[in-house]
């Protein structure tokens, strides 16, 4: 059996959520017992970093494409038409126009649908993005033989909104790389904090693309009230680590007009190797998102032993369990209160840290890869 994997999503220097999922699932699938089967990784250029280290039975196939866009729909579709594998696995939410089982019924396609936030909160997306995501999701649901989802919540969403048959859906939880995201030594933390000119435990941290759908404006509002309550001389800062997203200019304008603008910083995209140090050094990690399919940053914070304040939404309750302070994403005054509580109550900090370290033990990329490999093998 030939298993083809779209590695294009993973093959990027600056990865964010979906790209990291694609990277880790490929890396850990390499450890799975697929020895009797061939695996080919498709990409438009040479595989980066550890991706290019392939076990026996694996190969890389570079599918050149002269344009900046259209590789998935153009070049990968062409490959599927000319040389279809038995199974195509696409870790992202968009499938090529041509997938294997269109050519031959004994072939199959597997994809991952991470969330349908565009459906629940369309006002947080541009009209063009909504149309693009709706089309991609519909195509994936029509063409995929099996659909992976990161949580029970997302599974229920697809059944409720798109009426997908339950037997087509497989929950494959995300995980955290605990070889990197863990409690660090003090000198390791200090090295990273010095690099970004930050003081230890005097900042709140949020990581991810800076955009309206991540509820960044509400978080700024809550932090401003926190600063007013704490009074003159308060050292705490609010740190955003992530690239610019939809609505960033509006967010930046609000910060520029804030009396506390000097205490709100945008660090931009941060290399993964620096993230654990930033998380370890934070007084608390804040994740106020309106909607998530899983909420991977929550697990990264817990793995680093950093107290977590996260939005009170179903997937966060499912994943984090009781290891966080859950706060309504609609109420900035409650976020202000939670920020004060977390820095003033050391017993609460320690309780959340210990619970978080226990929760993280229940997730691993190895388990996720095992479930994914079983999906492949069970198809034939």
TrEMBL record:
UniProt domain Glycosyltransferase subfamily 4-like N-terminal: residue ranges: 17-179
Keyword hit for rRNA-binding: no
One MF annotation (Gene Ontology) recorded for this entry: glycosyltransferase activity
One Pfam family named in its UniProt record: Glyco_transf_4
Keywords: Transferase
Domain Glycosyl transferase family: 199-357
Record InterPro entries: Glyco_trans_1, Glyco_trans_4-like_N
Protein name: Glycosyl transferase family 1 domain-containing protein
Organism: Candidatus Uhrbacteria bacterium CG_4_9_14_3_um_filter_36_7
Organism classification: Bacteria, Candidatus Uhriibacteriota
């Amino acid at each position: 059996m030939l298993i083809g994997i779209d590695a294009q999503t993973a093959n990027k220097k600056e990865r964010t959520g979906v790209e990291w999922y694609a990277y880790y699932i490929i890396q850990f699938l390499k450890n799975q017992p697929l020895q009797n089967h061939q695996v080919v990784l498709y990409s438009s250029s040479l595989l980066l970093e550890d991706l290019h280290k392939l076990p026996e039975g694996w190969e890389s196939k570079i599918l050149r494409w002269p344009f900046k866009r259209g590789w998935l729909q153009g070049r990968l579709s062409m490959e599927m038409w000319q040389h279809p594998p038995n199974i195509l696995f696409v870790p992202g939410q968009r499938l090529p126009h041509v997938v294997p089982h269109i050519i031959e019924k004994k072939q199959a396609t597997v994809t991952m649908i991470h969330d349908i936030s565009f459906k629940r909160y369309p006002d947080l997306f541009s009209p063009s993005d909504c149309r693009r995501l709706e089309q991609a999701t519909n195509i994936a649901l029509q063409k995929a033989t099996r659909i992976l989802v990161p949580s029970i919540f997302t599974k229920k969403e697809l059944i409720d909104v798109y009426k997908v048959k339950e037997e087509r859906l497989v929950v494959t939880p995300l995980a955290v790389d605990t070889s990197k995201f863990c409690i660090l030594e003090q000198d390791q933390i200090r090295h990273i904090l010095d690099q970004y000119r930050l003081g230890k435990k005097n900042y709140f941290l949020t990581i991810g693309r800076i955009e309206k759908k991540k509820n960044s404006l509400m978080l700024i509002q809550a932090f401003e009230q926190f600063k007013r309550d704490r009074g003159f001389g308060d050292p705490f800062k609010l740190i955003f680590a992530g690239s610019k997203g939809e609505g960033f200019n509006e967010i930046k304008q609000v910060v520029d007009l804030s009396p506390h603008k000097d205490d709100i910083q945008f660090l931009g995209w941060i290399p993964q190797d620096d993230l654990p140090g930033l998380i370890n050094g934070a007084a608390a990690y804040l994740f106020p998102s309106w909607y998530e399919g899983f909420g991977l940053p929550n697990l990264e914070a817990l793995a680093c032993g950093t107290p977590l304040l996260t939005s009170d939404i179903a997937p966060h309750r499912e994943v984090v369990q009781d290891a966080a302070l859950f706060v309504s994403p609609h109420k900035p005054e409650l976020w202000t209160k939670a920020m004060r509580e977390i820095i003033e109550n050391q017993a609460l900090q320690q309780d959340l840290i210990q619970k978080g370290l226990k929760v993280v033990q229940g997730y691993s990329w190895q388990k996720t890869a095992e479930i994914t490999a079983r999906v492949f093998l069970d198809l034939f």
